[in-house]
Amino acid sequence: MSYAVPPTRTAAVVRQLRNEIVTGELRPGTLIKDAELASRLGVSITPVREAIAQLSVEGLIDIAPNRTRHVTRVTQKNALELIDVMSVLACAGFEWGVDNLTETHVALMRQRQKEFVEALRAGNVLAASAAGADFSTIVILASGNRELQSMVDLVVARTMRILAMTAESNLWGTWIEGHEAILTLLEAGDTQGALARYRQIYVDHRNLVERELFEDQ
């Protein structure tokens, strides 16, 4: 019988704040106050300060010279550069793995797509993000390159935190439609068509992010 090891208070605060940033509950520019956070989360000041330091390293919280802390503001350059990096890494992994996919792999991708859509309908952004990422992970791991998958995981997580997409965001539609098209192509045995469609997802996603999130910049 296995037991889950409870996180430290600092780890728990990091996870909670990270999730709030991902879901947009803590919006870019929000002032972070140690005492208020400690009171709200029911912990002492120390784990809050340690969590803020960790999230600062991750680029999620900015610490000004006067020591004030704010949730990092999203910039067009920052978001688009992350999408570009994610595209290069993920598309390489998809290309290397797509020809190794079996019927079992494709069936699992179909299941992840279902979970992805259902989580969005339920408003669960974190579950949707995990299921959507797993869709690509299945293909990338089929390439046998686990180091690449580790790098993709880091960039995907960073991108999701920066974009902080809500369940109602129009950006999800690009992935839902793209995944469905890829599955249809894979089920028809057209791996090269599936690869081309996967690449197109990133082109469309980047254009939407630039147009809808940064139209005033």
UniProtKB/TrEMBL annotation:
The keyword DNA-binding applies. Keywords: DNA-binding, Transcription, Transcription regulation. Signal peptide: none annotated. This is GntR family transcriptional regulator. The keyword NAD does not apply. InterPro entries: GntR_C, TF_FadR/GntR_C, Tscrpt_reg_HTH_GntR, WH-like_DNA-bd_sf, WH_DNA-bd_sf. Residues 7-74 form the HTH gntR-type domain.
